[in-house]
Amino acid sequence: MAPPPDQRVSPPPTAPAAGAGDGRGGGTAGAAGSPATGATGRGGADRAPDAHASGPPARSDRAEEDVFGLYIHWPYCTRICPYCDFNVYKSRSPDPALWRHALQSSLKAHHAHWPNLRLASIFFGGGTPSLMPPGLVQDVIDTATGLWPAAPGRLEINLEANPGSAERARFADFAAAGVNRLSLGVQALDDAALALLGRDHSAAEALAALDTARACFARVSADLIYARPDQTPAAWAAELDAMIALGVDHLSLYQLTIEPGTAFAAKAARGNLRPPDAERTADLYALTQARTAAAGLPAYEISNHAAPAAESRHNRLYWQGDWYAGIGPGAHGRLPARAQIDGADGAVTTGDADHAGGLDGARRAAAVALATLAHRRPQAWLDAATGGTTPWAATGIAEAEPLDAVARGEEMVMLGLRLAEGLDLDALARRLGPAAGRLLASPALARAVAAGLIERRGRRLVVPADKRALTDAIATRLLAG
């Protein structure tokens, strides 16, 4: 199975020697979970945060090991953006009643297997989840919160949205349904750039949507795509400064990359699309870090920037190595290997899930996590969720790969080093036991520290700010031994 997806987790930037970056933004071109304290006070800038608004949660000695988030994937868009390689489909007027039944069935089936978790966040991603009927969104929220108890802190409920006028008219209804954080796929504040990116909205519509969003939600995140063809540092600085001045408290800033199988990939192959070279993208990344930090929106993760207490709780679950369930077509999850089966606590086995056929008992016994992948095609997922003959089939999960401590640890290292605060070694030890020490006992760590690529700060390993663009390469070197 593939490594955990960016399923709204912000991808790494392109940088010299770091390999290809990422920065797609997805179907709504939404942030990783959602992607400044601002000056102009557009819209609801002075609104007090609501009872559910979320900052980074404090972590207890137990590492909140039973805390998890729900990712809900709505796969439909009105059009497919030329840079997007997510699991999305052009809207065909999906049946709300059928989707309500399927989503609720999948949630209940997940709860049947993992009842002892506590819910920290719900993230509606896609696709374009702002196309969902607000009543359906409310039913999903009510079902989830009725099944699992809340984790300590505020429950973050985020929805990705496009800035178009039809979706903008639904913002108040989404807020009434329980959504308390909106991720708005602005992508650019330039009409020519928006046309290049295949977006349906104009810059003026994006500004209007930000006004409306900030009047409806306590937390609003905006996404921008940079390192676009022919984009100069001066032009990007002006665009970024304009966005910062609008006063949103969270920005997800992605570099454009050309993904295989996309319309942009075909265009690039014909020589009709030329993104900036590695040197230019590195300059743009450095400019981004400097501008946002000076504005009080430092990067707390490679592509995500936030004012104090405005970080995305859901995305932090990914980066901290916490649990999350993926509900909907093609959604990925990371869940405890020991699930509740027919009322008894035990490891998932071939008798419980036909996905596990062929895995030997020793591998199952060694698992500390399950990497899950739901059926990709909407109809296949709907059929499984609504017509599954067993509780496992009704989850909609098509594949579940047991991860042993080494595989799970490698994921946690790769993701944890993306955070500005770095990798929490105590959390790693609690998750993995003795394997955590062995994972980082290689000479590679000592060499990385000696080379200034990694710093030890108490019980954390941190990639210095001036090396953060190389995080993926550093993590790969570290795990290579």
From TrEMBL:
SMART domains per the UniProt record, alphabetical: Elp3
Radical SAM core domain span: 62-298
Pro residues compositional bias, start-end: 1-15
Described function: Probably acts as a heme chaperone, transferring heme to an unknown acceptor. Binds one molecule of heme per monomer, possibly covalently. Binds 1 [4Fe-4S] cluster. The cluster is coordinated with 3 cysteines and an exchangeable S-adenosyl-L-methionine.
Classification via CDD domains: Radical_SAM (cd01335)
Keywords associated with the record: 4Fe-4S, Chaperone, Cytoplasm, Heme, Iron, Iron-sulfur, Metal-binding, S-adenosyl-L-methionine
Segments for region (Disordered): 1-62
Gene Ontology MF terms: 4 iron, 4 sulfur cluster binding; coproporphyrinogen oxidase activity; metal ion binding
Compartment(s) where it occurs, according to its Swiss-Prot or TrEMBL record: Cytoplasm
One GO BP annotation of this record: porphyrin-containing compound biosynthetic process
Family: Belongs to the anaerobic coproporphyrinogen-III oxidase family. HemW subfamily.
Cited PROSITE patterns: RADICAL_SAM (PS51918)
UniProt source species: Rhodothalassium salexigens DSM 2132
PANTHER family the UniProt entry points to: COPROPORPHYRINIGEN III OXIDASE, RADICAL S-ADENOSYL METHIONINE DOMAIN-CONTAINING PROTEIN 1, MITOCHONDRIAL
Gene Ontology CC annotation, any one: cytoplasm
Compositionally skewed regions (Gly residues) per UniProt: 20-30
InterPro entries: Coproporphyrinogen-III_oxidase (IPR034505), Elp3/MiaA/NifB-like_rSAM (IPR006638), HemN_C (IPR010723), HemW-like (IPR004559), rSAM (IPR007197), rSAM_sf (IPR058240)
Protein name stated in the entry: Heme chaperone HemW
